[in-house]
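seq/struct pair 1
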Amino acid sequence: MGRFDGATALVTGASGNLGQVVARRLVDEGAFVALPDRQPERLFAEFPEIGAGTVLAAQCQITDADSVAAFVQKAEERF
């Protein structure tokens, strides 16, 4: 049983070193994790769970409110 079983987290910067470590730890501890990125395909190799339903990686421009709102909606629908 993981420390974050059933929790949902949104992690920005998961294609970078620190964000990737944080996201990986959350996934390993049982959280559902949403990963917004301008190029989400960069995350597929590091997070094979993307296809398993516990991780969502989708296109998002964090500096654009409409893009963030659309991403959050996708995450709410998924998790």
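seq/struct pair 2
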Amino acid sequence: MKNNNAGYQRALKRIKEAKTSQAIELDLANLDLKSLPTEIANLSNLKTLYLNRNQLKALPAELGKLINLQSLNLEYNQL
């Protein structure tokens, strides 16, 4: 899903940086996200993902590809 929202663009940038650095933690909190970039599925090393304080109403299937994910913070969303 393409989105020109500033928070979404910041999330995309952080996801790309996390992929390059093979990060195990990613903070996408407080970005006013209504959806997640599909590129999130490329972060196979991710163990901790912060999605709190966004506007998410559903979680994408791509999260299922994060096989090492151990901690997922979803507080203060619309789930």
